Predict the structure.
Amino acid sequence: MSFPILTTAVAVPLVGAVVTAAAPRLGVASAAAIKQLGLLFSGIALVLGVVMAAQYETDGGLQFTETHTWIEALGVHYALGVDGLSLLMVLLTVVLVPIVLLASWHDADHIAEREGDSLGTTATFVAWALALEGLSLAVFAASDVFLFYVVFEATLIPAYFLIGSFGHGDRGFAALKFLMYQLGGGLVLLAGVIGLYVVSAQNGTPSYLVSDLANLPIDREAGRWLFVAFFIAFAVKAPLFPVHTWLADTTQRATPGTSVLLVCVLDKIGTYGMLRFCLGLFPEASQWATPVVVTLALISIVYGALLAIGQDDVLRLIGLTSLSHFGFITLGIFAFSSQGQSGAILYMVNHGIGTAALFIVAGYLIRRRGTTLISEMGGFEKATPVLAGVLLVAGLATLSLPGLSPFISELLVIIAAFDQHWWVGAVAVSGIVLAAIYVLWAYQRIMTGPPREDAGEVRDLGVREIAAVVPLVALLIGLGFYPRPLFEASNPYVSDLMQHVGVTDDAPSVDPAIYEAGHDQAEENN
Amino acid sequence: MFALNEATSIPVVDPASASGVFSLLWLIIALPLAGAAILLLGGRRTDPWGHLLATAMPIGSFIISLAMFVSAAGKEEGERQYVQHLWNWVDVGSLHVGMDLLYDPLSALFLLLITGVGSLIHVYSIGYMEHDERRRRFFAYLNLFVAAMLMLVLAENYLGVFLGWEGVGLASYLLIGFWQHKHSAAAAAKKAFVINRVGDIGLSLGIALMFTTFSTTSFTEVSALAGGASEKTLTAIGVLLLLGACGKSAQVPLQAWLLDAMEGPTPVSALIHAATMVTAGVYLVVRSNFIFERAPDAQTVVVVVATVTLLWGAVIGCAKDDIKKALAGSTMSQIGYMMLGAGLGVAGYAFAIFHLITHGFFKANMFLGAGSVMHGMDDDVNMRHYGAVRTAMPVTFLTFAMGYLAIIGFPGFSGFWSKDKIIETALTENWIVGLCALLGAGVTGFYMTRLMLMTFVGQKRWQPGVHPHESPKVMTGPLIVLAALSVLGGVLLAGDWIVDWLAPVVGTHAHEEPPIPALAITAIAVLVVAVGVGIAWMLFGQRPIPDTAAEDVSFATRAARADLYGDAINDAVVVRPGTALVGAVLRTDGVVVDRTLTGGPVLVGGLGGLLRRAQTGYVRSYAASILGGSLVVVVALLVVNFS
């Protein structure tokens, strides 16, 4: 039996969580040591992720599989494995967590000072972040629906405590609202999971393995019901209009680091689930539901962007930009073309990187100014050119500027949407103008103008702060010009999925054979 | 002979693989890009020499471009197209886009213009920005701009053009807002970007439509395939591309950003908002000739937009007291002429590019001249505070005068040849459009003479404490070179050279005789310009110019001063309804969606109350609920299993 690298990758952060939580009691006496411990464990997870990526075979389907029977009577397995989609999500997770820990270095300490319990608070923050990492990795690696459901629900525990214990303002309310929405979605998902079991059991031996379920003859009506259950849960998670209202309330009050974990990692489970389960298990129902889903996606794009324009709280603003972006991702998934689905997968990765940079820089800004309100900021650019530069790059990524990685994914989604119906593309494309408005208007109010009298001495980014964002900026630029590694992971997955769903790309309306003919003619002319 | 589509005689892009000197194509872009990277990442360490490095980069690119031009000129007409494949950029399904560069006679001219004028403006900026503490940053942005502009004209496919297109937009944003401590500069920068994004809708959807139609955006392939698409599709693509072009080239209705863009340092106005970036829309239309030639309706739209803009800009130019804004109105108008040439099809493409190049010379010259005047006048831009600057700044005056004679079309100067050709072609194709172009030439004569008289001639109206002085040599040097080019630029037309040179790209056109002899048209045009100059002389040369503009003026003057209400229209049609919409959506989200539709607060209130009562520990209550939940799952499954 080969080395269980996925279990190890899941276990390392979980063990790390236990160790850091217990560290103060084990005699680790400094907050810095605890944070270094957290960095160490997330660093090991990162190394494991990179090793997997290096060993991954592009056309090899599900890899690094581990399958053990868990509850035989129910057909439940402890089954892990990664394909192209999972691999990208795993990599996104292992890259972002150490960056979040580094960027949030003092966040927990500050709350600790406020609460008068330095070491314990810091340790708890690091521990919950690691726990969230381990569980998220399990979500993306699970190839058994029941296992997926269990870890899917389990991620709520660390998320809930990260919001409720470390945010600001009425963070208890935010944590509860988050939890209620997620539990509500989870409940619907549970119904779907049970329903799947029924269908599976009716067809012989019950099994929750995705590979078994994908080939199950599900009758049309049952498939549609199950699709609806799964989709609702994922729409709450992603989130989509109209079940998005927890999002901005949460990002407003959570620490920026927590928001990165929530929006850039955890929310991806929603769109991940749409691809893996909605399309993967219920292809017929997915196409049946497309008109409604596309409508919700388009509303989310425009509505989220309009809401973002109207915000004065920078953390709410960033949260709402994600509503718009999740609309794009969903639109790409339900365009049923390789451009749309590859675009959506790339969008998930790129949004994760870009939005993480945006949240982290916003965090730096808030630390310096002591407020989250844009109207209280202004004139930072002169004193903090590096901070301003990084904010601008992150903002430009959010508005999908060509040359930064989100551009490719957004354009692919727009092309796919346009291919579906020209007006779907036309509505979606309005998002690019609205994005320019919310990003650049916010930048203008935060950074430009004469320096504020009441700002006092503002210091530019320190080495630790720069170190946390440099990898993100490098990825945004690098993948913008050379997105091939992402395509190599996503393309085989997408072509398998397209085949499974039973759709093919539309042929271009002009036959390329004309080109060949014209080319030959040109040769003759010469 | 070059590759042609047999049936239509519209050229096909058919490049050979780049070899020899052409294998250095990538380096033309890489040099300024490296300059920008070194200056931005190197930080203050590069302060002492950063501007010199940044100036060397476009000069390097110019030398390579010149070597390529010489090499290409020595080859057969059909062998001047080269493609360089750098790497695969996008690969999804049937969609493959390479990071590919194309060298052909069209991009050859742009390379020389961008790197040549760009280098001169870099040199000038060494002096102009000498006392700015952020000079290094300024040069980094200029290098970034040059790299992006070169990408725009070298890309072999529309996606690559889009990359350069947005790159120059970003550089423009950074440079308009360079003095970002001024609210007006920051607002102008944002305005330029946002309006350009509206244009990008056209470019994005145009690219999307191209993908669904041809499954490619490569010039080589689209030019070969275009004949197979329906005219309706091609018209749609053409109009969408034009929308993009309107944003970048400040054509009506997306013109409102250009005058505000004058907030940027003057070298920026010369390079980006006169000589190069704002002409990218013209480039796009000419480059897409294989689309537009097959979509006459789209060409008509181009002509209408161009004609409206050339008059619109000229009228604005008449009313401005701010020297840079007067020049900006003029730029709008002149790009209108180029766009008109491009809209006229095969007969006009070459002249559009010809005027683009001569305009690049004389307008860059005049903007830099204006910068030199401002340099001497303590950065005052109000021409009512100038007068008689000629005496204090003789070199600036003489070089500016060359640009002035070129733009009004004084016989023999570069602008004379290029504008005359466009007017002549327009009159041949459609006499109404031709007359508008003729009228525009007269108005040009008027506003440029007004500008000239108010600035350099007449009584001194200098503000107290202002002592104009000639600029340093590092600034006057580029002025002299550009002045020479403004005078001599017409040589490109000698023996119809530029028409023949561009023929492999835009095709050839059987010469059509205009309705009246060409010489008569030229004479009439000169006469119309003379009338404009004469009226300006009567109004501004013969009478003293008051310190402040008169208030009790006609409606026409008020409208022109308000940029023909461009901002007011945008406000009424877009900004105010948009603001109201955002407000309405905010209220809806809070009241309707959150409270009613999803019952969020109700859920939170109810269940949250329960949890809050168990204040002793969220952990315990949550652990209990998870445990309970798991039990429910297992029980539910067992029940289903055993039933």
Observations:
- Chain A has a mean pLDDT of 90.
- Residues 63-83+96-107+142-525 of chain A form one domain.
